[in-house]
User: Fold Integral membrane protein from Olleya namhaensis.
Amino acid sequence: MLKTFRIVALLEGVSYLLLMGASVYKRLPGGDDFFVKLLGYPHGLLFVGYIILAFLIKPDQKWSLKVFGIVLLASILPFGTFYVDKKYLKS
Assistant:
């Protein structure tokens, strides 16, 4: 399950960055909200999957409450999931 969590974390992080870029593009003159609509739903699913998987693998990883809080907080910070992968998920 750790491998699945790492993949979801990577995809969630990438989708978050793409969604942020799409949000900036939307506000530019002549910008369109097409990409926000296109990326919003998949990112939402990945976000929810990340949170659920974090709760599921917490006992196996023996994360303290502090580390678990960092893992959850990382889901709402740009580049946060990449940090979690490097710091807490690599063997």
Notes: Residues 18 and 39 are 8 Å apart (CA to CA). The chain has a mean pLDDT of 92. Residues 34-61 form the longest helix (28 residues). The radius of gyration is 15 Å.
